[in-house]
Amino acid sequence: MKENLKNKIRYARIKQGMTQAELAIKLGISPSTIGMYEQGRRIQDYYTLAKMCDILDMSVFDFFPYDKVFSVDVVLKSIIECLSDNNKPVLLNGKILDEQNRNNIVCMMRLILGSK
Fold it and tell me: How far apart are CA 103 and CA 80, in angstroms?
């Protein structure tokens, strides 16, 4: 995966018409660090990768296979679906949630997801 990642970073940067130095400035790191990422001599942390994805107009899924990335929004949407089905009891800390608590949790999760 390291081999794939280093090639994708370089390709994405070049596609955007950006030099290593320009990308480094936008990330707030040194150009030599970008060089090390592209040579596979160093792997960036997830915060840097997320910031890099934003700068290069890419998704983290462009760097990693979908099955290798944990997608929290998919999990939250599944929980919302379960909580919204009032025909099935839902346990939280060993207690059945009443309708009001279920609705409160659904509202909070929708806020987190940025959806209504």
Answer: 9
Q: Which two tokens stand for residue 78?
A: 């599944």
Q: How far is CA 88 from CA 81, 82, 84, 91, in A?
A: 11, 8, 9, 10
- 3-class SS at 64? coil
Query: Beta-strand (E) ranges in 51-107?
Result: 91-92, 95-96
The structure tokens listed for 40 are 């596979």
Q: What does pTM read for this prediction?
A: 0.55
What structural domains does the chain harbor? 2-62 (1.10.260.40), 72-113 (no CATH)
Average pLDDT per consecutive 10 residues, the chain (116 residues; last block may be shorter): 74 93 95 92 82 85 65 77 85 89 91 77
Residues contacting residue 50 through CB under 8 Å, at least 6 positions apart: 60
Tokens standing for 39? Answer: 């040579």
